[in-house]
C-alpha cells in the first residue's frame, strides 16, 4: 500500500518549519552581533542560554575534586650518601706515616708528600694510591731534606747604596757593600736581609737584584754573616729566576713578599704561590714577609701556618711586620720546632723580647744597632727599667726621623748621617731628602744624643 499524499505534505511542512526556526535563530544572532557596539555586548551574544547549567557543572567538578585521592608518591630516600673524611689517626699507621698528610682543600682530601698532590679521601683511596706505580716510584726516590733554619738573633734589612749622581735611575753602588757589611759585623749584627722593602727591591731590575745578591754573598761569607734574600714583589717568572739564582748562590734563606698586583685572596692562595716557588729553591729555607701595611694583603697568619704544614717542606717561618704583639705571639707558639717567627717592627722591640722572641728585625739596626741590642740584653737580664729607657730613646729617634719625609728616604739619610755607609740617594718614584732637610735632621739627632 502506498502512503497518502497528505501525510507526506504534513511531514514536509514540519521540516520546513524547523528549518525556518533555525534560520531565524541564526539570523537573530547575526543581527545581534551586527548591532553590538561594545566588547561586552559582543560576548553577551555567545553567553550560555542556561547559566544554571554552568553552575551545576562547576559543582560536579568540585565534587570530583573532593573525591580525588592523589596517587601515593614514591618516598624519597633522605639518607645522605656517605662521604669519606680524613682522620688524623691515619698518619700514625706505619705504612702511611712517612707520606700522608692533611690537605689544605678540606677533610675530603688527603695530601701525598711524595707525589706533592692532593687526592680524594677515604682509607680505600689512600691504599689504592699507595699501591699505584707513580707513588711507588716517588717513594723509591731519596727523601727530601730541607735545610734547617738555624739563625737566631737580630736581622738587619739593609738599604741599597746608589751612586750620588742626580738622575731618575741612579746606578747601584756595589763597591759600598763590603764597607756596609763590615760596619754591621763590627756592631755584632749577623743577620742581613737584602732587596726587601727598605732596600727598594721593587725599584730594582732583576739583574740588579741578582748582582746585589752576588755582592752581599761574598761580603757575608768573609764576615761569617747570615744572608737572607727577598725575591718577591715581582712577576712570577722573574721571582722563579731569582729563586734559581739564590739557590745557586747557596744563600742562608729566601724571603718572599706576595705578588703585589695579583694579590692572594686568602691564605690558601698564598700557600699555592709559595708552593710554586719552592719547586725551584730545592732545600733553601723559605720565609714569608707579612707586611699588610705595605702589601695590603691581609691573611690569618695562624691559619696560614697551620695549613702550610705538609704543603711546602722548605717553609720555615715568617717575618711579622706589624705592631700586633698578640697575633705575632700566637703565630710564634705554633710548631716552634719547625717555624721561626721574626718580630719586624722597631717600636715593639721591648715587647717582642719580653714575649720570648728570639728573632727580631728592625730598620733601626742600620743606624742604632747597639741601642736595639741593649734593649734585648736588658730584658734577658731582667732589667726592664733600662730596657724601657732604651726603647723610649729609640721611639723618639724614629719619630724624629719619620717627620723629615718619606720613611725609606728619611731612614736612609739618617743611616748615612750616623754610619756613612749607604748614601742618601733613593730611586724614583721615592724622593730623596733635600740637603737642607738632611742638615736639620743631623742637628736634631745630635740634640737627642744619638
From TrEMBL:
Matching InterPro entries: Aldolase_TIM, DapA-like
Residue ranges crossing the lipid bilayer per the database entry: none
A Gene Ontology molecular function term of the record: N-acetylneuraminate lyase activity
Superkingdom of origin: Eukaryota
Keyword hit for Lyase: yes
Signal peptide region: none
Keyword terms: Carbohydrate metabolism, Cytoplasm, Lyase, Schiff base
Reactions that this protein is recorded to catalyse: aceneuramate = aldehydo-N-acetyl-D-mannosamine + pyruvate
Subcellular location: Cytoplasm
Main location per the UniProt record: cytoplasm
Keyword Translocase in annotation: no
Pathway: Amino-sugar metabolism; N-acetylneuraminate degradation
EC number: 4.1.3.3
Cellular component GO terms held in the UniProt record: cytoplasm
Biased composition (Basic and acidic residues): 1-12, 20-32, 56-80
Name of the top EC class for this enzyme: lyase
Region listing for Disordered, in residue ranges: 1-80
Stated family: Belongs to the DapA family. NanA subfamily.
Assembly information from the UniProt record: Homotetramer.
Name of protein: N-acetylneuraminate lyase
Lineage, opening ranks: Eukaryota, Metazoa, Ecdysozoa, Arthropoda, Hexapoda
Amino acid at each position: 500500500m502506498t502512503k497518502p499524499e497528505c501525510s507526506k505534505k504534513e511531514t514536509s511542512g514540519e521540516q520546513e518549519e524547523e528549518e525556518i526556526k533555525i534560520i531565524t535563530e541564526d539570523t537573530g544572532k547575526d543581527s545581534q552581533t551586527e548591532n553590538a557596539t561594545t566588547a561586552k555586548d559582543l560576548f553577551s551574544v555567545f553567553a550560555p542560554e542556561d547559566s544554571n547549567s554552568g553552575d551545576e557543572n562547576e559543582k560536579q567538578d568540585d565534587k570530583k575534586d573532593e573525591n580525588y585521592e592523589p596517587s601515593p608518591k614514591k618516598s624519597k630516600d633522605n639518607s645522605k650518601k656517605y662521604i669519606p673524611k680524613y682522620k688524623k689517626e691515619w698518619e700514625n699507621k706505619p705504612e702511611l706515616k712517612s707520606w700522608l698528610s692533611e690537605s689544605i682543600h678540606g677533610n675530603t682530601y688527603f695530601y701525598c708528600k711524595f707525589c706533592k698532590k692532593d687526592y680524594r679521601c677515604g682509607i680505600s683511596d689512600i691504599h689504592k694510591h699507595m699501591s699505584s706505580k707513580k707513588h711507588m716510584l716517588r717513594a723509591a726516590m731519596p727523601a727530601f731534606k730541607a735545610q734547617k733554619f738555624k739563625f737566631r738573633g737580630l736581622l738587619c734589612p739593609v738599604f741599597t747604596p746608589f751612586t750620588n749622581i742626580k738622575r731618575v735611575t741612579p746606578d747601584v753602588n756595589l763597591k759600598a757593600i763590603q764597607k756596609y757589611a763590615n760596619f754591621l759585623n763590627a756592631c755584632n749584627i749577623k743577620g742581613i736581609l737584602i732587596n726587601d722593602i727598605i732596600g727598594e727591591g721593587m725599584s730594582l731590575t732583576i739583574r740588579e737584584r741578582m748582582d746585589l745578591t752576588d755582592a752581599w754573598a761574598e761580603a757575608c761569607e768573609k764576615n761569617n754573616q747570615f744572608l737572607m734574600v727577598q725575591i718577591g714583589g715581582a712577576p712570577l717568572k722573574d721571582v722563579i729566576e731569582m729563586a734559581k739564582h739564590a739557590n745557586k748562590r747557596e744563600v742562608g734563606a729566601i724571603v718572599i713578599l706576595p705578588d703585589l698586583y695579583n694579590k692572594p685572596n686568602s691564605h690558601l692562595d698564598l700557600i699555592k704561590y709559595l708552593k710554586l716557588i719552592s719547586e725551584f729553591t730545592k732545600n733553601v729555607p723559605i720565609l714569608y714577609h707579612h707586611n699588610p701595611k705595605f702589601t695590603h694583603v691581609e691573611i690569618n697568619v695562624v691559619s696560614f701556618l697551620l695549613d702550610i704544614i705538609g704543603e711546602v717542606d722548605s717553609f720555615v717561618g715568617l717575618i711579622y711586620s706589624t705592631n700586633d704583639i698578640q697575633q705575632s705571639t700566637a703565630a710564634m707558639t705554633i710548631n716552634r720546632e719547625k717555624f721561626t717567627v721574626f718580630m719586624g717592627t722597631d717600636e715593639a722591640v721591648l715587647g717582642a723580647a719580653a714575649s720570648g722572641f728570639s728573632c727580631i728585625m728592625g730598620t733601626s739596626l742600620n743606624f742604632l744597632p747597639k741601642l736595639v741590642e741593649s734593649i734585648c740584653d736588658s730584658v734577658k737580664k731582667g732589667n726592664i727599667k733600662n730596657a724601657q729607657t732604651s726603647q723610649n730613646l729609640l721611639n723618639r729617634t724614629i719619630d724624629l726621623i719619620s717627620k723629615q719625609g718619606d720613611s725609606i728616604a728619611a731612614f736612609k739619610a739618617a743611616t748615612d748621617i750616623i754610619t756613612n755607609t749607604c748614601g742618601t740617594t733613593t730611586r724614583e718614584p721615592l724622593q730623596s731628602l733635600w740637603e737642607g732637610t738632611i742638615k736639620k735632621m743631623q742637628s736634631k739627632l745630635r740634640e737627642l744624643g744619638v
